[in-house]
Design goal:
Helices cover about 45% and strands about 0% of the residues. By secondary structure, it is mostly helical. About 15% of the residues are buried. It is flat.
């Protein structure tokens, strides 16, 4: 790993990264990609991966990172790809709704109320 700066001594420990504390580091990583298994085994493998995630101290950070990079496969932060997709959609709808509320996007209802 490269040094944080060219002036830093080589004896410095590498910078901390959240993944260093992840519970999955001690596990067989194949369980976190259940789509690689036969279709009949996917739900069981995904449940096993999510059980590891539930005991992970960095689960929220992992989930946020997977959502930020739109991770297409696997179980990340306790959510599989379909759950992450649904969560992203809910977040997008919430942002749109909030933007409409802040922008006064009442439209026809506001203009009808103001003409009376």
């Amino acid at each position: 790993m490269p040094r944080p700066s060219r002036y830093a001594p080589d004896t410095l420990p590498p910078p901390f990264h959240w993944i260093d504390r992840a519970a999955c580091r001690a596990e067989d990583t194949s369980i976190f990609f259940p789509e690689d298994f036969p279709r009949s085994e996917v739900p069981l493998i995904a449940m096993e991966a999510k059980a590891v995630c539930r005991r992970c101290p960095v689960m929220e950070t992992c989930r946020a990172a997977a959502l930020a990079r739109s991770e297409p496969n696997g179980v990340w932060g306790g959510l599989d790809k379909d759950e992450r997709r649904a969560l992203r959609r809910r977040q997008q709808r919430r942002r749109r709704r909030n933007a409409l509320k802040q922008g006064g996007g009442g439209g026809a209802a506001e203009s009808a109320a103001g003409t009376g």
